[in-house]
Design brief:
Layout (H helix, E strand, L loop, with lengths): L1 H24 L4 H5 L6 H24 L2 H41 L15 H24 L2
Helix pairs in contact: 1-3, 1-5, 3-4, 4-5
Length: 148
C-alpha cells in the first residue's frame, strides 16, 4: 500500500506541478497586484511546499519503514488537502465564468489582461489532481494505520 500511495502521490504532484506552471505562465503572480487572480500566491505556494516536503518524507518512510514518518507525511497532507479544497472552491466560479467571458474576450483583446490565470486550467487536470489527491490521502492514512 505504501508503494501505491507513492505512485498516486507522484501522479498528483505531476498534475499539481502542471497547474502551478500554467498559473505562473499565465501571469498568476502578476495578477496578484491587479486583483484578477482568485488564487492568492500564499495559498498556491502554501499548498505546493508542504505537499513536496510530504512526498520527500513519504519516500524516506518507504526506505526507513518508520511509522513516525508515515504519520508525519499524513500530518503534512492535511493542510495541503484543506488548501486544495479552498482553492477548488475559489476556482469553480472562475471556471463557470469562462463561457460568458469567452465572448467578451474575443471582442476586446485587452480584456485578456483581466482574465484570471487559473481560468486556463484544464478541467481534466483539475479533476484528476483532486481525485488522485483524495486517493493519496486515503492510502497514506491506511498505510500509517496498518504500519506497512
Amino acid at each position: 500500500m505504501a508503494v501505491a500511495a507513492l505512485i498516486t502521490w507522484v501522479l498528483t504532484a505531476l498534475g499539481g506541478f502542471f497547474l502551478l506552471a500554467t498559473w505562473i505562465r499565465r501571469g498568476g503572480l502578476r495578477r496578484q497586484q491587479s486583483g484578477t487572480s482568485r488564487l492568492p500566491a500564499p495559498a498556491v505556494f502554501g499548498h505546493f511546499a508542504p505537499a513536496a516536503v510530504g512526498l520527500v518524507v513519504w519516500i524516506v518512510y518507504i526506505v526507513a519503514d518508520r511509522s513516525v514518518l508515515a504519520w508525519t507525511a499524513f500530518g503534512l497532507l492535511l493542510p495541503v488537502a484543506l488548501l486544495g479544497f479552498v482553492m477548488l472552491a475559489r476556482w469553480i466560479p472562475v471556471h463557470r465564468d469562462r463561457t460568458t467571458a469567452g465572448a467578451a474576450a474575443a471582442a476586446a483583446p485587452e480584456a485578456e489582461a483581466a482574465v484570471p490565470a487559473e481560468r486556463h486550467f484544464p478541467v481534466a487536470v483539475v479533476v484528476a489532481h483532486g481525485v488522485l489527491a483524495v486517493a493519496t490521502l486515503a492510502l497514506v492514512l491506511l498505510t500509517a494505520l496498518g504500519g506497512g
